[in-house]
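#struct-help
A.M.: can someone run this one for me? Single chain, 81 residues.
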Amino acid sequence: MTDKIEKNLAKFGKKELLVVESLLHKIEEGELSGLNLVKLKGYSDIFRARKGKIRIIFQQREDEIKVLAIERRSEKTYRDF
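D.P.: on it. Structure tokens below:
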């Protein structure tokens, strides 16, 4: 994980970290049916998974998944994508 993701994870509480862990596990396993997933506008391979105020933005290319951001929803969440 990048430094930015690790820095954001340090701000989360225990309950939020459990939610993040659960979301990441589902994304890794390909269990996308129960997730609130949206493809980001202007991109064919970047998606957003949402649970409450937590957002996980990831890129999916063939069988490879790359996590780009894990953040709480704010005005800046989608600015870099």
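A.M.: thanks! The chain has one domain: 3-72.
D.P.: also worth noting: The chain is about 30% helix and 35% strand.
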